[in-house]
Automatic annotation (TrEMBL):
Domain Amidohydrolase-related: 243-366
Designated name of the protein: Amidohydrolase 2
Highest taxon, organism lineage: Eukaryota
GO terms, molecular function: hydrolase activity
Pfam families: Amidohydro_2 (PF04909)
UniProtKB keywords: Hydrolase
Length: 412
């Protein structure tokens, strides 16, 4: 049996972590509101309910959850996991899966659809002994501002040009307020979901007429259905530009969903390679490419390597990708990314199990990949330890200016 690298093992599995991108947990009253299979897949409909349970991701996650729930590892199924968790007191369920993670700080994006109605707030999450800070979702805030504006005007006779100007003034002021708020440590864009990462750049090429057209379309939708979902190319691109400019002035990182996501994205335009022009346009703004940009991890690695203002997050692949796949992706991250610019996250959401699996599987991948490199003589064990500690804690601590000191457990 291959000998274990004790120092690296200790760092990978017990060093405190900063979860640089996650979402709130469901309230107890809504604990069964979202299909539990969403824990292991981004699929929807029958692809989620019928197919996701047959993935390697689910087959691996099942015994890991069974162990925590203290069920029979050899005889328990995915269905048994669902039944057992449902029978537990909700607070006990959350504690059982959250406390072992050793997460010292969670940076929560609370703009996910349904959060306001179904999920707990940021302060509630501090019950697990971790600090929580906010990541503001740009498009969600833009929709809130626009909806408020529409409620205050005559929807038939309003001047679109004036409304557009007023909207962008309020958006800039809102982003400024958020960037001045010590509880907000960054912004996030879901341009990938709405219109793609091929964001028009420079901002001067975005047609005012097209932007006005986008406002008009949003107004028509609101007038008809009393709701807004911004998905107009030029309008959405200009919204992102406003946020990037403000974030650059205040040195607040901007996270971008890249790669892996549900079937609402256009896979073709989810590669971060499309972002190269906008990365160049805002050299003072720090870009965080979320989710390993999978399956475009190599592109993310390149951008992180050649631009000082780009960082690579390697979250969400835990637990959505198989174990071998996770190790392969993390190796690709290390192929080119400077190790002071890689960040870990769970992309935890809705269920405490998502944080647990996102943590234990990531820690395993970090150890497996780094230990293999050490054993091949390409890194010293101490160098590998530093990489693990940086990826789990120090890189995020520095980027988001959290000023935290790692709380070492008795096991470290």
């Amino acid at each position: 049996m291959t000998s274990r690298l004790e120092l690296l093992h200790k760092a990978a599995f017990t060093f405190p972590a900063i979860d640089n991108h996650a979402h709130p947990l469901l309230k107890e009253s809504h604990r069964s509101y979202v299909p539990f299979e969403g824990l292991i897949s981004e699929a929807d409909g029958e692809a989620l309910s019928e197919d996701a349970v047959h993935t390697l991701a689910c087959l691996r996650a099942t015994p890991q959850l069974v162990k925590v729930l203290q069920l029979d590892v050899n005889a328990s199924s995915w269905g048994d996991v669902k039944s057992a968790r449902q029978m537990l007191d909700y607070n006990d369920l959350c504690d059982k899966f959250m406390m072992p993670c050793n997460i010292q700080s969670i940076l929560l994006d609370d703009g996910l659809g349904g959060v306001a109605e179904w999920a707990e707030d940021l302060k509630w999450h501090r019950r697990f002994g971790c600090d929580t800070k906010r990541i503001v979702r740009i498009e969600t805030e833009a929709e809130t501002i626009l909806k408020d504006a529409f409620q205050k005007v005559d929807l038939v006779s309003t001047n679109i040009n004036h409304l557009t100007s007023e909207f962008f003034n309020r958006l800039g002021a809102s982003m400024t307020t958020f960037c001045e708020d010590p509880e907000v440590v960054g912004l996030k864009s879901i341009a990938c979901y709405r219109t793609g990462l091929n964001i028009s750049s420079p901002v001067t090429i975005i047609s005012d007429a097209k932007v006005h057209e986008g406002i008009s379309e949003a107004l028509a939708t609101y007038n008809k259905a009393n709701k807004i979902r911004l998905a107009h190319k030029e309008l959405n691109d200009k919204i992102v530009h406003v946020a990037l400019e403000v974030a650059g002035r205040y040195k607040k990182p901007v996270q971008f969903h890249t790669g892996l996501g549900d079937n609402d994205i256009s896979l073709r335009y989810s590669s971060p390679s499309h972002m190269q022009p906008i990365i160049k346009e805002y050299p003072d703004t720090q870009f965080v490419l979320l989710h390993s940009s999978y399956p475009y991890t190599k592109e993310a690695g390149y951008l992180t390597a050649v631009y000082r203002n780009v960082f690579c997050d390697f979250g969400e692949i835990f637990p959505f990708v198989s174990g071998p796949g996770q190790r392969s992706i993390f190796r690709q991250v290390l192929d080119l990314c400077p190790t002071n610019k890689i960040l870990w996250s769970t992309d935890g959401h809705w269920w405490p199990e998502s944080y647990y699996l996102g943590t234990v599987q990531a820690r395993q991948a970090i150890y497996d990949v780094l230990s293999d490199i050490v054993k091949k003589g390409e890194l010293t064990e101490l160098q590998a330890v530093a990489i693990a500690e940086n990826a789990l804690f120090y890189n995020a601590n520095n980027l988001y200016k959290l000023k935290l000191v790692p709380k070492l457990t008795q096991h470290y």
